[in-house]
Amino acid sequence: MIVDRRLNGRHRNAVNRERFVRRYKDQIRRAVADAVGRRSITDLDRGERIDIQRKDIAEPFFHHGPGGEREQVHPGNKEFVSGDRLPKPEGGAGGSGGQAGDGGDGEDDFVFVLSREEFLEFFFEDLALPDLVKKRLATIPSTRSVRAGFTQTGVPTNVNIIRSLKSAAARRRALHAPRRGELASAEEHLSALEAAGSPADALLEAEAEVSRLRKRLARVPFLDTIDLRYNNRVQRPQPTTQAAMFCILDVSGSMDESRKDIAKRFFALLYLFLSRAYDKIEVVFIRHHTQAAEVNEEDFFSARDTGGTIVSSALTLMEQIINDRYGGDDWNLYAAQASDGDNWLDDSPRCAGLLRNSLLPRLQYYAYVQVGAFDEQGLWREYARLASERPQLAMRKIASVADIYPVFRALFAKQPTCAPA
Amino acid sequence: MRPGLISNGSEWNFELIEAYERAIAEIAADYRLDTYPNQIEIVSAEQMMDAYSSIGMPVGYSHWSYGKEFVSVEQRYRRGEMGLAYEIVINSNPCIAYLMEENTMPMQALVIAHASFGHNSFFKGNYLFRTWTTADSIIDYLLFARDYIRDCEQRHGEAAVEAMLDSCHALRNYGVDRCKRPAHLSPLQEQARQRTRELQQQAAVNELWRTLPQRDAEPDPGTAEHFPAEPQENLLYFIEKNAPLLAPWQREIVRIVRKLAQYFYPQRQTQVMNEGWATFWHYTLLNRLYDDGRVDDAFMLEFLSSHTNVVAQPGFDHPRYSGINPYALGFSMMRDIRRICETPTAEDRAWFPDLAGSDWISSLDFAMRNYKDESFIAQYLSPQLMREMRLFAILDDDRERAYQVAAIHDDAGYRRLRSALAAQYDLGNREPDIQVWRADRRGDRSLTLRHQQRGRRPLAAASTEALKHLASLWGFPVRMETVTADGRVDAVNEAQPPR
Questions:
Q1: Inter-chain CB proximity A64 and B457 less than 8 Å
Q2: Range of the domain at A248
Q3: Domain span at residue B329?
């Protein structure tokens, strides 16, 4: 007998694999942390080779250790004769010429590859989207009406004519069937009587029978209420799993390439993080010096402008974009701002005002990172004051590339801290 | 296409596979091969990896160790370090053989001859398989085991079941009856008895470990202290029946692991014979197809190229040498037996008087049915083959500073060489001989095991871990003692059950 099993389930071992990964979570987590240290952050979005020490995952069993005496047979003798003595290799017992399957596996690591999903799962393990759950519960999910077959009850506007007539036809045919035969034979009988010129009472009787059957057939209604079929529609909830992410970057003269690189990596990480929580993410890039502009990703990171800095220009533009494109409850809005902290002195209070009054109430989270600079200028002080009263605003300083990930984790730690650093 | 040819080209389809199966079956019947009915299943590479990592079984319970196996197989395959086996065959009735869809037609024919006729007839004929396995019910038992363990996971939690399986797996090589022959049960009886067994066993254990001693049953301490009366080699069986603290479902899991270990026990003892037999028959059957004009030269070239790879035996000093290739040794020995039967030399007549000149088909069949690797080599390894393979034995004694060449392929060495190679395939020699010596029923309830040393070989340090698993099953301290060749008893180590 030959059976084609190719269409049967693959991945029969998926559950076993998952159990394996769960059992060695600690080792794998360590390996993931190592990998994150090695990799560039723009390169995080792929799987990872995991090395686990073989002794950690060995399955123990009773077996012989080295020592004692043992005799092994080998093939391919060339010049040995009985009684020859061959010096043992220096440095250690064992090495008895390849005893296979004596339980002593090599000491090399057990290596396997985590898929991209598994890797990111570990990567983001104890991070959580701030207020994501709250927003989900708070918003009434919108629903959409979708077709769901046919029902026998409904309102007249929903009558499905084809279906209804089909079932009427079927019913009529079924109810007619037994009488049609009788009618045919009665009619035949009648015409036979007529042809034979039978007596009138016999004719009358036959005619009465024919008309009785015709009446019975006519009594089967053309359309009955049980024939009616209605189009059925159900409301299916549409969870809002879309997000918009605003990246605000200071491109004034004081932001050099290395600072922009740090900012870029931070944005990349945020994007990666959000893309795990939402089906659909739109990214809006806003760069600013004294004026703000919405640009595409390439221009966002490449071009460099000179001049001073007015941060509120970017916030105003962001507010405008939200009003134009992301109004309503359908969007989860996130914003991340990277700057070196320079701002026109009288502009910082304006920024804080804009955030407090019009932006923060609509945003899930606003993350501010100050790159490269440690001094706390006007913008930092204003933000710090605001952050102490609004948990949606979080802020940190990033000095070098190595800080990005720790800062990111701190910003998005499972219990969001509202205190500034 | 020449008339008579079954196929040409490398593409296969279901009709062709059927045609080959029929053609090979006809020839196999000619050679009096007795097989279970065949069930040939075409699988993809992924499914093959799946089957690989669940020890080839079509159904199995879930455990992380299979996941580990799968991950490593997948990894090596992806990186091209390892080709997948062309086939996996299951000792069941009907005999299930998996064929990979990637194989070419000649490869599929090779696999059919190898697995569906070679291995299949071995499973059906060899005494170990006949004694220890029930091909009719193994699939049903696996289903029962999977469902039972899944049910346990739901009732008692995955962690508890996993810990239980870990411990049992550590001891599964010691879950085998080497001497006793269990009575066979149908799977239905098995299931029906399972429930009553739970109750009975618990009752028996309760009786055994009753804390209130019965005064009248107090025998004199000299004999009473010794339980079990005789050393027990089947550790898992002893645990299942006597461990004081296990819950009924845990005993059933011990039993499942033990039963499956028993099922695989014959395979571990007949590697050389099984593969040698299957290789010999695919070689013989396909050559006959060629002689009959059923396959063409291209087919044979492809077949021979993979056959040669399978039976390659690099010498001890070759970089790829990793011990004796069981396919090569088995195949050579089977061919050698046929040679001795058909064209014996004077030497063969002296060494194998009964075999020389006999009917090779029945002689080979007899050898297949009545031996395992160890006894097969001890009986049939001929001087001529030892010379051909240029075998030599190396003695490694840790008290000496040098290895000694103990025997080579010459008149003085044949017998020593043969018994050394046979001993190498003796499971009792490869695995430490560990038996339950004493369960202290009145004192600290500890369990004492004895390791009977052979050739002064000690237990590996890693055995401590296995001992811990035993302690967690037993529930009380477990001690290991080693008995040396001169009868001295040394305590090796002790494991406490986890608290």
A1: yes
A2: 242-411
A3: 317-428
* Nearest chain B Cα distance for residue A92, angstroms: 11
Report the DSSP pairing between strands A48-52 and A110-114: antiparallel
Boundary (domain end) residue, out of B428, B447, B479: B428
In whole angstroms, what separates CA A396 from the centre of its chain? Answer: 29
Top residue of B403, B427, B431, B493 to mutate, by most chain A CBs within 10 Å, is: B403
- CB A67 to CB B457 under 8 A? yes
DSSP string for residues in A318-381: HHHHHHHHS-STTEEEEEEEEE-S---GGGHHHHHHHIIIIIGGG-SEEEEEEES-----HHHH
pLDDT in tens, B213-233: 555 544 454 555 678 888 888
Q: Is the ipTM, as predicted for this complex, more than 0.95? A: no
Nearest CA in chain A to B459: A64
Residues B63, B120 within the same domain: yes
Compare CB distances from B62 to A4, A15, A21 and report the shortest one's residue: A15
Task: Tokens for A310, please give them.
Answer: 């007015």
- State the pTM of this model: 0.68
Of A10, A101, A111, the CB nearest to B46: A10
Sign of the torsion formed by the C-alpha atoms of B210, B212, B218 and B223: positive
| B357, B339: one domain | yes
Neighbours of A56 (CB within 10 A): 11
- A331-385 pLDDT, tens digit each: 788 888 888 888 887 888 888 888 888 888 888 888 888 887 777 888 888 888 8
Residue B360 lies in a domain: yes
Name the residue in chain B with its Cα closest to that of A105. B462
Among A17, A61, A86, beta carbon nearest to B71: A17
A and B: number of Cβ contacts within 8 A:
267
Same domain, A300 and A396: yes
